Every structure is written in structure tokens, then in C-alpha cells.
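User: Um, what's this?
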Amino acid sequence: MSLELSLSRARVSGGELAYADMGEGPPVLLLHGFPTSSYLWRREAWLLAQRMRVIAPDLLGYGESDKPEDADLSEPAQAGYVRELLARLGVVELAIVGHDIGGAIAQLLALGGELSVRTLVLLDSDCFDAWPIEGVKMLQAATPEQETPEFVEEILRLTFELGISHRDRVDELTIEAYLRPWRTDAHAFFRATRGMTGRGLSGREDELAALDQRVLIIWGEDDPFLGSELGERLGDAIPGSTVALLPGCSHFVTEDAPQTVGPLIYEFLRSQYLMDPHSHVHPTGPVPVFLERPQGGFIDADIVGEEG
């Protein structure tokens, strides 16, 4: 299912956040990355909301959230804004799903100790000291004269061209939905770009190794921005994690393989977060998921399911 998300608004210290809050049950937080928004989760949110309370914010400076000129948009600050939102919503125990910088924020929240993060799902996630990547550093050095709507659209279209392998599965309306929040304020795009500092996770491998949550790591094998070797390294760093490599997929795996990624997340959370040992109802058909980290290596998504 792919429907627009209905967004509410809440004020945090940096400005107002737009967020979806849907479904009932144990809460799960969905965190998008750069340069997307909660629209990234338009399919997965409806699927997960059948059993869980889904909270999917637009990060500050992104999507329909405020784009203040002077707010701190670094990853640790974004984690703080998300914590404020969760406090307003009365959420202290949850699962977190994060893509790209949303994955870095998810790790910061899990390591921070203020929340009880029971389960993590990380998709092509920023990690260690591997970001910002060189392309982002070039954008961070853009001059004021370069900060035009035309340049932003050019960069965004190139990002999705490189970051989605199966472009035939993504129509112009989808690309336009990602472009729309940036059209009215090109400077906001560059503020968000400069907000990616890489701070917060470098040198914290020992803390990652101490995590006792169940963790699923999903990665596109052909990710040109964050190579799949990072996914394997992240899996090595977190004991008990499971790594699913998606062949033929790039960075935006929810766009490349929605019929695989959504059920992977759902089944993992069903078993490891809801602690439901068996389900007779699978909204998109039965999808077996390996929940134990194999002794011999990593899960290849060909075993789990493949897009047709």
C-alpha cells in the first residue's frame, strides 16, 4: 500500500516538526535521511501500522518541518529534537527504523540511554566516520551564487538517478514529491547539507558492541554513496545483528525493492519487537526472514525474496 501520510505538527526547541502518528500498539519510529522526508516511508508506515503505532517525522530542516536559518541541524541535534517529539507524545520505549542519516540518528538514540530502544532496523545507514561523503562535502562548499533552485533540482535528480537502480519503478510523481519541499527555499537544502557533520558516532565501536538489542541491517549491494562493505562492518560491530544485502539495489532501497524491504522490516519487528513467534496473516504474502546471525556470514536477500 502506498498512500500519503497525514502530518501533524509539534514544537521542539529548534522549531516545528511535521510528523505522522498512526496505528495502535507498541511504537516504532521511522527516520528518513538526506535528502528525503517522511514520504520515504509512505508504504512501510501503513504496513507497520497494522500492528504498531508508527511515528514518522520530517527531520528539522526537511520536508514539511520548519527550515530555520539558525538552528543546529547536526546529527546529535536532530537526535535531540526527535527525543523532544517523543517526550511530547509520551513515548519512552520503542523500536527505531532509520535510513541514511536517519540511521545515524537511530544509533545515537540507542546509545544515548534516555530512551529504551528495544529493536533497531538500519537501512544503508550513515555510520562510524564514513560520512559526510565527498559529494556532500562539495555541496557544503557551495557559494551563495550556486544556491539556486535550478542547481538544487539538478543535484537531487542526479542523487536519485544514482541512488535508485530500478528507475522504472519510480515515476515522476514520486521524484516530484521529494523535490517539492526544496523548491521554495534552495538555501534550506544547503543548510541541511551543511548540517551533516559526521559527529556523534566516530570512535564508538565499543559502545555499539555493547548493544543488546536485536538489530537488522538492510543494505543495497550497489549503493554508490555508502558501500555495502560498511553494512558488513556495521554488522560485525553489533553482536547478534543480522545483515541483509539486497542484490541489484542502490542506496534508496525502499524505492528499489519495496515489496522486499517492507515485509523484511515488518517480519523482523513482529518477531523481535512484538515477540510474536508466528503469524498466519501476511498482508503482502509470506516472506521468510532469518532472525539469527549466521555463523558463516551474512544473509543474501536472494534467499529472502526478490523483486519481480
